[in-house]
Structure formats: structure tokens, C-alpha cells
Amino acid sequence: MNLFFDLDGTLTDPREGIVRSLQHALVTLGYSPPDAAGLEQFIGPPLAESFRVLLSTLDEAQIQAAVAAYRGRFSERGLFENRLYPDVPSGLNSLQTAGHRLWVVTSKPEVYAQRIVAHFGLSCYFHQVYGSELSGERANKAELIRYVLEQEKLSGHDVLMIGDRKHDILGARANRMRAVGVAWGYGSLAELASANPHAIVNSMAELIEYVRGTARP
What we know:
The chain is α/β, with parallel strands linked by helices. The protein folds into 2 domains: about 1-15 and about 85-215, HAD superfamily/HAD-like (Rossmann fold, 3-Layer(aba) Sandwich); about 15-80, DNA polymerase, domain 1 (Orthogonal Bundle). The chain contains 10 helices and 8 strands. Helix 6 (about 110-120) links the parallel strand 4 (about 100-110) and strand 5 (about 130).
């Protein structure tokens, strides 16, 4: 089976780096930022989408100024204010050893995603790392998944999307794929359930069991 993994909230916990970079961007633009807990909901969705909400604006110039301020800090420091979820390396190894092909498919800009995957020594598990462009192209998860399917010449019938937010589930469903929500990330159980995933798993061990039970011969 072909397995598409989200990155933030699924393979790594990026809370510190993302929250601090969001706060930095808001302060740079003259806003008083929410506390860390108030910013956790913005871990995972496309960055421009998050700033539209945080700034309460549709002004693209202001949104892009916030994105630029965020990236200025994130590319230097925030990338590495991050940690692996404990069972990820062993889980990826088990899935790869079982013959599954793995990809990272994240709304995060691809240039950052590649650096994070390499930093944590995960590159050996993945066929390729796919993300959005810095321009914002393919930040929409459905669009990104469609692009990966086309680039890799894959049928959605043999692909499983794995992620922690509704964007992952809805993006997979838009491409007629199966999707599994992981409960250890930043999407609540209610959020995941509302997107109607095929399953929600609580651990990497449960994910491995689900894949084993649903993989086509």
C-alpha cells in the first residue's frame, strides 16, 4: 500500500517553533499575540489561512507581510524547535519493512519539510517529500494530494492518507482516497470525526494494525 503521511502533528510535534513564529509575526505587525494555547489550533492549516483568521483581514498584502515575518524566524530557528513523536521511527520502519511505500505529503512548504525530515533522520523511510510552494501553491491539501497522485502515477484506491487535522481527511476524500486520523496531534477527536475518516487511531501501533488489516494483496 502507498501511505501518505502529514508532517506537523503526525510525525513531529512542532508546537514550540510554530507558536513562537506566529507570535513573532503578530508582534512584528503591531498586534498583541494570543498565548501559546490560543495558537495551537493554527498548527497544521495553511499559513495564509491562519493569518486571515488571526489578523481578521482579507487584505492580501497584510497577510503576506505576516507570512514573511513568520518565515523569517521559522526558517532560522522555528524549524528545529520541534520534536519527534516517540514511536515514529520504529513505526515507519515497521511499515517500510512490511513492503509499504511511504511519502510525506504536507501543506508546509516543501523546502522546510525536506529539512525537517532530514534533521530527524527520517529520509530513509520516504520515497519522496511533497509540500507546498513558498508562493502558496498547493497549500490546499486536496490540491496537493491530487498533484502527488499525478506525479507518482498512483491510483487513489491504493493510497491511504494519514494525518491529525480535518484538512488531511477532507483532502483525501476529495481525491476518493481512504484516510485515517491520528489522535495524538492537534486536531480534536470532534474535528477528526466531523471529517468522516475511515478510522481514528490512538497510537502508531494501532495505525500499523489498521494498515495490516486493510492493505490489499
